Amino acid sequence: MSVATQQQEELAAARPPGGRARTPLAGFAVRRLAQAAGVLLGVTLVVFMLERLTPGSIAHAILGPRASPRAVAAFNAANGLDQPLPIQYLDYLWRLLHGNLSYSYRLNQSVGALIAQEVPNDLILVGLGLTLALILALPLGIAQAVHRGRAFDRILTTVGLGLYAMPAYWLALLLIAGLSIGARLLPPEAGQSSAPAGILADPMGLVLPVLTLTLVNVAWFSRYMRSAALETLAQDYVRLARAKGLPERLVLARHVLRNSLLGVVTLLGMSVPMLLTSGLVVEYVFNVPGVGLSYWTAAANADYPVELGVTVVVALATVLGSALADIAYALLDPRVHLRQETQ
Amino acid sequence: MTLKLRDRPAVATGLTLILLLLCFCFLGPLLYQTDQTHANVAITNLGPSGAHPLGTDANGYDVLGRLMVGGRASLEIGLAVALLATSFGALWGAVAGLAGGALDALMMRAVDTLLALPAIFVLIYLATVTQPTLPLLIGVISLLSWLGPARLIRGESLSLRSREFVDAARGMGATSARIVVRHVLPGTLGTLVVNATFQVADAIILLATLSFLGFGLPAPATSWGGMLYQGTSYLLDGYWWEVYPAGLMIMVTVIAFNLVGDSLRSSFLAP
What we know:
By secondary structure, chain A is mostly helical. Chain A has helices spanning 3-14, 24-52, 58-63, 69-78, 85-97, 111-146, 151-164, 168-182, 203-233, 236-243, 248-270, 272-286, 291-300, 304-332, 335-342; strands at residues 103-104, 109-110. Chain A starts with a helix and ends with a helix. By secondary structure, chain B is mostly helical. Helices cover 70% and strands 0% of the residues of chain B.
């Protein structure tokens, strides 16, 4: 069966009889999102079980170790903790679906409000680190692939390997020691304003955290870009473009860069957990008022609701990131979902 | 599985570094004996000298001796996690790939679910719930690390199961267990070895991050990340010997394992 007829049959199969026409891409997107929802359901189950791991009981964790049995019983009845576990799980799920991430008794604040208040700072920090890293890593990776095996490529690969082996906090410490304590150029702490997106109030304080995140990401991305560009350079259409006399500059810009960009979509989707983990570390080192630092403070104070609430949100971002990346990829390169349809 | 000529120097360098690190951490304490249990407030934060080549830290522990003890924990966790996670992940992936159908789908959705959990966040939570110990950390980090190998090996097992030697084995009446152990897993050995090498480095970084954030092994035990966590407080005081040696050890270890992993991958797995 030729590819063309195969695709026509797929189109026909994707159109439900009597229903309205559905493109294969929409079907792919719906299935991929349904899969993400299933994974999220599993995540909530794991987090729920983690919550039940709290030694003693939740009542004792909140009311204190010397709470009277009467107070514990009253607390359990008020919070549905005297119900069987499956009922409690459904209850937990119901609250999550309504955006209720539980309540921090230590901070006397709902976890959702805490995250909403600090998430702008995280978006600025991680977003800047990511954007700058992409701007640097794309041309570097392609240049390395073009000059494969030569001194330029070797030096950058070695530097990249060194950066890659540097945990974010180690790099951050070196930058503080060099630029902040040694040269006294930059402050070692981010701005402490509690206003929304308050870290922008002190741009100098933002330089070192963003620089750290950028370098960590560049090491990761340029490695990936180099191998993606190497793969693209070996393709027939690049050979054809060169053979028909297209200037090398245009070959790189029109054929290599654009096709390697496809891989970046997947890379971005996959890197959500890494971005958030290095975000946590950088926020801790530079005292950035963000969700990561709140998580650390919560952990240091055994504030379980904040810890578990943040964990669920990070998992949500991870799952959505990879699902949206898959869908965006399918949108840009229809071969992907068409291939999946045939399986 | 032979090493290509161009990969040999890198593998040799990496393996030499690893061997030196193992000697330093496991044989070092026999030759250079220090008290890493009792704090000594009379000799805190001393600079390098003849008696203490790398000085002492805020509790009066000898830093050189502490690097050995801390490295032991890091290497033990790295190697144990690589072994446990890779073998369990490989088994899981091979069974899923060979079984196919609903069981495969179920097993891989379980992998997806655990993969969505952010490892460092879960580890920090567990550290606040219980006191972390070496076996507990090995267990939990392994539980969060077997997912990568499971996915890789499932992919390979999917392609291996349609091969003739698997059909032949089945035709001779081999059980599924025997097919997995004798025919599928050996075929994925290259992938497994390469993956295990990277897993050592990843587990060491994960432990170091956890310790750097203050949720590692409780005192007097330590790891390189824990030494950094403590030394950071003295960065402004200029006690460089409490910060840089531990950070360098982490870097050298990670580079050594990545060097071996990268070169093995280019030798075994490149087309």
